[in-house]
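Quick one: structure for this chain?
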Amino acid sequence: MKSFYPALFVIALASCGKKPVVERSSSPVTVPASLSETPLFYEKQTPVCRSEAELRLNNLINFNLYLSGKMDELQGSLLGLLKDQKLRDPEGKIISSSTYGESIELRVSRSGYGRKVLSKPAELTVCAEDDAFPENTIESVGLNSSRYITRAHKKFESLRSGYVLAPVRLSIMPSIKQSRTLLGPAGYEHREAYWVDNAIYNPGDATITFLPHSLEWSNAGNVKFWNIPMVATHEYGHHIFTAVFKAPLRSPLTHSCFGILRDRDPRSGSREVTSYSILMAYNEGFADLVSYYTLEEHELDFSGVNCLEVTRNVESEVFYDGAPKVFSRAVQDLYFSKTPQPWNNCRLTNYQEVHFFGAIFAHSANKFLGQLTASDDEKYKVLIKWVRYLRDNQSLHANMEGRRYLRSTFAELLRIGVKHLNRRFDEATCQEAEKVFEGISSELRECAN
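Got it. Here's what it folds into:
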C-alpha cells in the first residue's frame, strides 16, 4: 500500500570512499517516505535463550554487510560486543544496552503530539545455542550496528583527545505508529502510518535508533541501513559531535540522519539561514568524516546505493549529477537565498539541503587538510579541535548573520589545521584555501599580503 505522508529525502548518510566512485547506477530513483503503512518488522531468531551459557566470544560468525559495492558475508568474532549474552560491551562504556520490541503510538493533533507507550523495550540477548544469524533477524541487525558503533568509538578513543564519551543506547526496530484524524471530502478520516526507512541519533538521551524499512523500500531493491557499515559510524559521529560541542543541540524530537533543512518560515514560505542552520550542516559533514576516517576502503564503497553513490563520497569532487562540491560564490548565494529551491529527486543537487551542504563541507575540509597531511588521524584531531572552538565561541556566534558565520568559522578551521600541523599560510596554502572556498582569502589575514 502506498504511503500517504510527506517524504523525507534520503540524502543524509555520508557515503565515503578512499577513492572517488564515479560509476552511476542504473537502479530506479526512489525517494522513500519517512512514514509508511507497510513496515517490515523482523523477529528475534531465538525469543528465549534455552541455555544460560555464554557464546564463545572468539568463535567466528558471519556478519551480513554491504562491502565493496555488494552484499557479502564478513567473518568476525563477538569479542567486545557481548556481556552475559546481552548485546553491549563488557564494561558498558560504548553501548549501555541494546533493545528491541518497543512500541509507541504518537497521536498528532493541532496542539502537538500525544505519546502512548504500548510495550516497553526488551534487552536484546544473543543466545549461545545460535551459531549463525540470518540477515532478517533482530540479532543480525543488532550485531551489525554494534560492531560498527564499537569501531567508531575505538577509533575516537585512539586519538587520545581527552574526551570521555557517554555510552549510547541502541534501539532496534521500534514500532512507532503515528496517527491523526483529518477532515476529508467524506468527513473525518483516521489515518495511521509507521516511522520507517531511517536511522536516528537522539542527543537528548544518546540513543541510536534503526527504524524498520518499509515494503516500498524493500520492493525497490534498496540496501538496508544496518547492512551498510557507515550508517552506524555516521550516527555515532553525531554522538561525538554532541559530546565535544557539549551545549544541547536544539531539535523538536530527534536528530534524524535523514531529513531536510528546516530553515523555511511556514507563514511566508521564505528561507532564513541562521548560524544554527549552518551548525547542523557542519554536524552532518563532521559525521560523514567520522565514518570516512574510521572505516576501510571496502567498507566505504557505495556503488549502486541509491542516492548515496558519488554524492556522499567524501573524495568525489562532484555530486551525482556532476554539480561541483565547492563553496563557490554562486553556491553560497544559492544556499543563502530566501527563495526555496524546488527539489524532489535525491540525485539532483540542491545546495540548500542540509546534507548536500554538509557534503561540501566534508569534501572541502578533507581536501584542504589533505594538502597538509596524509594522516587521517591528524585530520580527525583538527576537526575535534575545531568543534571545540565552535563550542567555546557560542556566545560570540549566537546572533551572527549566517553568511558571516560560515566564512568566519570555516576560516578558523583552516587556521586550526595549519597550526596543528605546524605549517604556515604561504602562497600555495592560501591558493588551496581559495580553491575550496571562494573568497575565503579575504577572511584570512594571513593571506592578506
